[in-house]
Amino acid sequence: MPSKNILKTYIENGYYHIYNRGVEKRNIFSDEQDYQVFLSYLKIYLSPKEESINNIKNEANFGSEDKNKAISQLYTLNNFFNKISLICYVLMSNHFHLELRQTNKKDIEVFMRSLITKYTMYFNKKYNRVGPLFQGRYKAVLIQSEEYLLHLSRYIHLNPQELLTKGELLQSYPWSSYPAYVEDLSINWLKKDFIKNKNFTFNSYKKFVENYEERSEEERKAYKSLLLDLGRSL
């Protein structure tokens, strides 16, 4: 019988929780460069192609030959601007979570295949390895309520909590979209308005995420239900 969330329901304008982990639970991010490369791929895929080309042209550390090569490679890539809206994300050492919205019915399939293939090629070349990096196909959960959308963003942003030392702020974890939310950072390829427009200011969103015990009993039950569902599927 197929594992939970392997069989996916794709709909137009659907919201999804996308996640996967390393094969045999191995690390998929081994150093800072790996995290940065994965995020750079998200940026390239989700930004207008012309914007990415202009960024390369304006890169002071690239010679003209390197710029031409990078631009040529960029033209061969799929582009998902106005097709995929990334709402929030977190990258952990052996897994990742994305919360996103697709426009067309098959956008996620093409997007995830492009992202996973490109990152695996980078990783295998860097670490002189062959074969799959991720544990099977990515998992996708259709988000069917605004409540789930909000609680999932909290769950994703709380992922690094156990890694923090005493006194460290949650937004100090660099491989998450959380700093962009609570520090009001502008990232063109991150669509914060899907959450921000739910009557949140940045301060109240921080309270929503971190001050869980202050929420109503009904809200805590809803969040616990989400955690149980995630626990069964991860």
Task: Please provide a written account of the structure.
The chain is an alpha+beta fold and 234 residues long. The chain has one domain (15-233). Helices cover 45% and strands 12% of the residues. It has nine helices and four strands; from the N terminus they run E-H-H-H-E-E-H-E-H-H-H-H-H. It has helices at residues 32-46, 49-57, 64-76, 107-126, 146-158, 178-182, 193-196, 202-210, 217-233; strands spanning 15-21, 84-91, 95-102, 139-143. A four-stranded antiparallel β-sheet has the order 2-3-1-4. Helix 1 (32-46) runs antiparallel to helix 4 (107-126). It is globular, with a radius of gyration of 18 Å. 27% of the residues are buried.
> How many strands, what sense, and barrel or not for the largest sheet?
4 strands, antiparallel
Low-confidence stretches: none
Helix content: 40-55%
Average per-residue pLDDT, rounded, comes to 87
- Supply the helix-strand structural class: alpha+beta
Query: What radius of gyration results from the CA coordinates?
Result: 18 Å
Shape: globular
The beta-strand count equals 4
Structural domain tally: 1
Tally of contiguous helical segments = 9
Widest sheet: strand ordering: 2-3-1-4
- Gap between N and C termini: 16 Å
Strand content: 5-15%
What's this entry about, in short?
With 234 residues, this protein is an alpha+beta fold. It is built from nine helices and four strands; from the N terminus they run E-H-H-H-E-E-H-E-H-H-H-H-H. The chain has one domain (15-233).
Structure keywords:
234 residues, 9 helices, 4 strands
